[in-house]
Amino acid sequence: MLLYIGLVHYPVYNKNYDIIASAITTLDIHDISRVARTYNAKGFFIITPLADQKELVQRVKGHWTEGYGASYNPDRKEALELVQVADTLEEVKEEIRRKEGEAPVCIATDASKLAGKIIGFDKARDMVNQSIPVLIFFGTAWGLHRQVLEEADYVLEPIYGPTEYNHLSVRAAAAIILDRLVGR
Amino acid sequence: MLLYIGLVHYPVYNKNYDIIASAITTLDIHDISRVARTYNAKGFFIITPLADQKELVQRVKGHWTEGYGASYNPDRKEALELVQVADTLEEVKEEIRRKEGEAPVCIATDASKLAGKIIGFDKARDMVNQSIPVLIFFGTAWGLHRQVLEEADYVLEPIYGPTEYNHLSVRAAAAIILDRLVGR
After folding, report:
1. Is A98's Cβ below 8 Å from some Cβ in B?
2. What ipTM does this complex have?
3. What is the average pLDDT across B12-34?
């Protein structure tokens, strides 16, 4: 398994479907890095082109991996060590290609039902469990820009429970998706 | 399915295993109520005896169910309408008994492997899918007080991925557990 996770802050939509760069939610860094560590991901990329937002991520990471937090909570250190920042998805793909020797299969996630390259959890699970790099990425705010979805190799089917309600937080969605794809 | 969720802020442990009442994390209210709504839970109880903390929960709930948030984001309203506050687990059980005509089966969750009444996800899933009330509850801070675990009918097995790391946030754990117990 050569699994990577990405959390995209640009380009995403706001409530009015304008294209924006969303703000970092620091709890996302903690929650999703702990999920990444639990399910043995090799890296968790936080994607934003904004300098002050990248600095915020590095400050949180630094506190828990080198600063006081590292000795206060070593479990958190193990998780946050997986965090890297990147300007763009392209940069993430290039970094994975450099590290693994081949470009990753890119699977976008989205709460809406898109026509086209939707794959189910079973097929995605098969892919993740091969020895090829796979990058699964999540949007923030009101979701990934359409072009990002179009450029992905696949889009994962949305999460549903027994109802039609599918408005999970990205933290909850990332947890459930990793469990479905990698969990025992 | 007559499923209820509880999030316990007292009695829980702090890092030094003193018994404390933990502070409310407002994002827990949002994330876990959205999980509850997605998986068709009938209620989400936030348990704390502290008056100012109960008031905080009511303020968040009020904003999203009656205030500006209700029209701004109706999906969030649907989720937060499930939220109720209670002083104690006993009060929660009594409320469910009053509503459903019988006391709930109580399933605690804990990241540690406890001897005794551990049940697996399969058995818990069978229980949840019967027409008996079931209350699944989660601890905050460094976990549920031992007495609470002892008084539960069952303790759910911890979540593991392919590694021995099991330090998920309560938000991620609640999402994964509900998906495993109720998800399609």
Report:
1. no
2. 0.95
3. 96
